[in-house]
Amino acid sequence: MANRHLARSVVLQVLFERDSSEGKMTNDEALSRLTDYGKEFGARDSDMPFMKQLLQSAIAKQKEIDEVIVRAAPEWPIDRIASIDRNILRLGLTELLFADRTQVPAKVAINEAIELAKSFGSASSGRFVNGVLGAVYVELGEPGKNEGGARKDVGNKPVKMPTEHLAGAVVYARSEGETYLAFVHDIFGHWTLSKGKIEEGEDIQAGAIREIKEEMGLDIKIVQELGVNEYVANDSKVEGGKKRKRVSYFLAESPFSELRLGSSGGLDDAQWFPLSTVGDLNFYDDTLKIIVPAINVLAKRSADPQKKIETEEGSEGQKKVEEKEESQEARTERHGGRRRR
């Protein structure tokens, strides 16, 4: 572990210098610098493949990672973050988001970044890095939180948290005898459900209709409520730094029209998918728990048993989604993963 910590320190040094060069350092120069620093600081030869992969991934994914940083720390524009902290975050997020978790568990990635911040940053760097990576960790569903050892227990004292209400929908449309579902794609690489915050004094259903219009450009009709997801999220603007988010989801019908992605942030695409292909998409566990009931409702509402959504046997897409949910539930029991946007 100590050797891997040294390896990460060497990668950080190269990332810092590359950042300071304002893009003038080429990838080949960065790799050459990595080799030189590895020898200078006594990194093991056996760690060089790990170091090269980490450096190349951090460089290749920098744009996506910077978007995640902006989302996790909206009060800190990327160019206002100290260069060393910025590159520690880039390194930590590279491992947290893109590394093989069997090799680098999420909590190891976070702890290693915090230690780098304590070693190379300012007095407040450790807390800042912990806050940003912790926010992303919660967004990912705290993978591996039940495996022990990563984050310190802050005590069992109950904390009263403010509640933020949100609403979203599983939106469907029919075209030429086929059923389609609309999803948005987030910067973490998953397809998910469109949702947003309910405004003060706004009805939950009215809020869902407004949010879908703003985020996907669709005029929807609410069919029925599907369920509620509730979770805790980091928020530096509230007392205690945490708030409870309560998301009400609805099944909603829409015309099969062009999707127009809004500017709410954190999303990079919106698409319609035939129901038969939905089971092949990359979803979060809690998203599946809403999608499966939605498909079941659609199946029951289908008047024609020969349609893609069949009342008795279930469609190919329905079976795929249910199988994926069962698979992810089993994985959740092993690793404690739950992810929410």
From TrEMBL:
InterPro entries: NUDIX_hydrolase-like_dom_sf, NUDIX_hydrolase_CS, NUDIX_hydrolase_dom, NusB-like_sf, NusB_fam, NusB_RsmB_TIM44
UniProt entry keywords in alphabetical sequence: Hydrolase, RNA-binding, Transcription, Transcription antitermination, Transcription regulation
Pfam families: NUDIX, NusB
Keyword presence, Flavoprotein: no
One GO biological process term: transcription antitermination
GO MF entry, a single one: RNA binding
Basic and acidic residues bias: start-end ranges: 302-335
Top-rank taxon: Bacteria
Domain Nudix hydrolase: 162-297
Cellular component per GO, a single term: cytosol
Ranges for region Disordered: 302-341
NCBIfam families: nusB
Task of the protein: Involved in transcription antitermination. Required for transcription of ribosomal RNA (rRNA) genes. Binds specifically to the boxA antiterminator sequence of the ribosomal RNA (rrn) operons.
UniProt cross-references to PANTHER family, sorted A to Z: ANTITERMINATION NUSB DOMAIN-CONTAINING PROTEIN, N UTILIZATION SUBSTANCE PROTEIN B-RELATED
Family: Belongs to the NusB family.
Cited HAMAP family: NusB
Name of the featured protein: Transcription antitermination protein NusB
Organism: Candidatus Kaiserbacteria bacterium RIFCSPHIGHO2_01_FULL_54_36b
Gene name of this polypeptide: nusB
